[in-house]
Amino acid sequence: MKIGYARVSTKDQSLSMQIDALKQADCIQIHQEIAGGAKTARPVLDEIIRNLRGEDTLVIWKLDRLGRNLAHLIQLTDNLIEKNVGLISLNDPIDTTSAQGRLIFGIFASLRELIRERTQAGLKSARARGRKGGRPKGISQSAIEKAAIAEALYKDGSIPVKKIAEQLGISKTTLYLYLRFRNVPIGANIASVS
Length: 194
Fold this sequence. Notes:
By secondary structure, the chain is α/β, with parallel strands linked by helices. Helices cover 49% and strands 12% of the residues. The chain contains 7 helices and 5 strands; from the N terminus they run βαβαβαββαααα. The protein has helices at residues 16-24, 43-51, 70-82, 99-128, 141-156, 161-168, 172-181; strands spanning 2-8, 29-34, 57-60, 86-89, 94-95. Strands 2-1-3-4-5 form a 5-stranded mixed β-sheet, sandwiched between helices. α3 links the parallel β3 (57-60) and β4. The longest helix has 30 residues, at 99-128. The protein is globular. The two termini are 35 Å apart.
């Protein structure tokens, strides 16, 4: 069963565009929520997640309507994978009911662990050389995580740079900065064509 979730951040915003799109996507149920800010609780979403059963599909208008931040989005996707629930984002290249969609979904789920492992290895290596650990000043944990995801999606080559940037909620310029930060060669990739 397709279950829709529409969210806006404030009462001044309209849910109608999202609801129309979810109806066109043949959602049997559509749940609405007004919840803004990175730390705001989302009781409607929490209830939906609790009630989803295997073979259900959660349909959203866009990924930024689902997760509070990247870490929360990855946690939610992990939860959906465990429950054998599909996820379709109508405006992002995410549809876990298809092989390519499951690949992208899997990349999101795997990157968090990969980032943690690399960070720990880097800190251990730095300590062995007598250096103080931690991330460089001015680079947030969220930016580091987005850079790792950008690298994986860019190297995959199946999604254009413009779509990767939109999916991560960043500009193409920032995407290229993240790729340089990760020492990724730019330009020799299909996805680099906007």
